[in-house]
Amino acid sequence: MPADQVGSVVGVVGAAGGWGGFFPPLVMGAVYGIVDGCTWGYLLLALAAAATLAFTATAVPQRTARRAGRGSNA
After folding, report:
1. Which of 16, 24, 28, 60 could share a disulfide with 41, CB 3.0–4.6 Å?
2. How far apart are the C-alpha atoms of 44 and 22, rounded to whole Å?
């Protein structure tokens, strides 16, 4: 990461961690309260992880290649 963008990257990673620490327990608690079990909550978390993996594996490399083609380091 270029030195002038490290702060932005750290901010995004920190924000993602904050959201990730806040919403999954709420979702798990709500699902547990509705179905009286954790299985569906874990399946929802696995689905969210799979969607994130798919996005990271497809969209991120495409955007990186486009930016590299323009001569930008970001």
Report:
1. 28
2. 15
| Predicted structure pTM score | 0.63
Rounded distance between C-alpha atoms, residue 66 and residue 36, angstroms? 47
- What parts of the chain have a pLDDT lower than 70? 1, 71-74
* 74 contacts: CB under 8 Å, gap ≥ 6: 2, 5, 67
Ranges of each domain in the chain: 3-69
Task: Confirm if 3 and 73 have CB atoms less than 8 A apart.
Answer: no
CB 40, CB 31: distance < 8 Å: yes
